[in-house]
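Re-run with default settings, no changes from the original entry. Doing this only to confirm the output is reproducible before filing.
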Amino acid sequence: MIHVVTGAQWGDEGKGKIVDLFSQKSDITVRFHGGNNAGHTVINSYGTFPLHLVPSGVFTKKGITCITSGVVLDLEVLTAEIAMLEKVLSNLRKRLLISPRCHIILPYHKLLDRLYEEAKGKSKTGTTGRGIGPVYADKVSYQGIRLNDFQDVNRLREKLEIALSIKNKIIRAFGESPLDVEEILQEQMVHYNKIRDMVREPMSLLFDAYKKKKTILYEGAQGMFLDNDWGTYPFVTASSTVAGSITASSGVPAQYINRVTGVTKAYTTRVGSGPFPTELSDTVGEKLRAVGKEYGATTGRPRRCGWFDAELVRFASKVNGFTDLAITKIDVLDSFETIKICTGYTLKGKRVSYENLDAYSLAEVRGIYKVMKGWKTPLGDIKKYALLPKEAKVYLLELEKQTGTKVLTISVGPNRNQTLYR
């Protein structure tokens, strides 16, 4: 069975906790796209772990974890993350496979990311500055450097020389000092040697596991509306975030997918620039941010907050083929007298749908809202769905109705045991 878990909003939906939960019954957990611009926080008996590259399903006793070819790697970040995890997971090196086809984020990618953003001024995209866009750009323009290039130091040096012959011209044009080939080479080889024993193509393992009817959990990063094609372009990420991209990113056919869980907060958040139809730039939005502790796991940036946008999640369900939804942070709404759900948009007085809008027209829409009664009671200690207040159940059923997708998992707090199932 292949089970894909992906974000149904703009990322930060709480996928880390949901993947951690589902992975307890999975044989293999896979991270299949993106880079360390993603941040998934897992809270368990070992402590609190902000993960950026290693799959959130790593906290199983025997399960295998894989980083497949669609992921771009900052080796310094990856080795630090592995070192952190090895303090509590003694058998990690035997359970983590990293595809040699992964492209590597290098110092010039991060430098260029910053320089490009600064050059855009007020029109900046709002990237994390981690070099994600530039490394994917190199990937598709045949200038990328992959993990398998590290197996031959001379080949790696040659590729770096070619890359810097191009990049340094751009770097100098921005008034910055050029980068040195040998310095980058030596630094990167130190990091590579720390993970050399884990570099192995996972494709055959994944294919064989499916044939043997094992459970494979695919962990999406970012969210649907940061997808490079279907998101709010250009305010998006560089990778494909949709469920079907597991074929390109890991070599497993999309028709093997059995279940797709969309993770969404009970409200909406966004980090960085771009349109946000339900954003609340008032005391209500400030309250959502404060109660929900809405600050980025990767950058620490405050998240923009707003009401649940059913138009977005409805579209995400179509594209990804969601079989069910996992609703997170519903407990953040515990103290609200009334709660709103955006059920659709109007533009210049006419009803419009997301699929016919671009980022600029989306910024001009007006939301159509349904007002729901709040439950005014804490949900964090509730252990069964049946024990939820009537108003909370009505709210969840309305989300289900508006998105056309069953709500099967409800998170009422950050810990594993603060989860309800239907």
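DSSP finds 13 helices and 19 strands in the chain. The radius of gyration is 22 Å.
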